[in-house]
Write a structure and sequence with these properties.
By secondary structure, this protein is an alpha+beta fold. 43% of the residues lie in helices and 15% in strands. The chain contains 3 helices and 3 strands. The chain has a 3-stranded antiparallel sheet. It is globular and about 30 Å long. The chain starts with 11 loop residues before the first strand and ends with a helix. The relative contact order is 0.21.
Amino acid sequence: MPTTTRPADDQLLTEEDLAEFLRVSLRTVRRWRQNRTGPRVVRVMRARRYWRSDVVAWVEGQSGE
């Protein structure tokens, strides 16, 4: 399995954490996941999580300008 170097202070976020972090609804986060348009999802056992660094990179990539 490939390893990725992550910042020492990186955190795994729940769907609820992600919604709060981005100030969007939980429904929006779930729609992004279902449509595969949101930040990359990782599975930890059966739970869905989001690396904070991936979320920040995804937001930065959303800039249309």
